[in-house]
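Q: Got a minute? One more chain.
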Amino acid sequence: MKKVLLLTMLMAFIASANSFASANKYKVDEAAIDQVFESSINVVSTESDVNMMDLTSVSAANDDKNVWVALLLDWILGGLAIHRVYLGGRPVLIVGYLLTCGGIFGLLPLGDFIALLINMNDISKYVDNDAFIMW
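A: Always. Here it is, folded:
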């Protein structure tokens, strides 16, 4: 088994080294790139009155709730849905989790934990989510 694993790793290394060698076939024409940049126009000016409220709406929702607190609550008290109430869900979720033996025997808190880990940068779709299955 060790020989098969070692052989597979060796073949993967050789394949990746071959792909790096084939990347050297392409050449970049710096003069053409400079010409494209010189002929471009400025689309966005610094003095434009862009509504920045739309751009910061995601970060405003995330500032309210800390993803690390939600992850810690899910890890420690996941079967009681405390993390869901922290994120803005209704307290009736606690009853649902208790009636299903900790969220279908702990599968829902595990899914919530993985979903929060994957989407750490934008948890806005989990804030104020009253659905029984958060993800």
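A: The two ends are 39 Å apart (CA to CA).
Q: Perfect, thanks.
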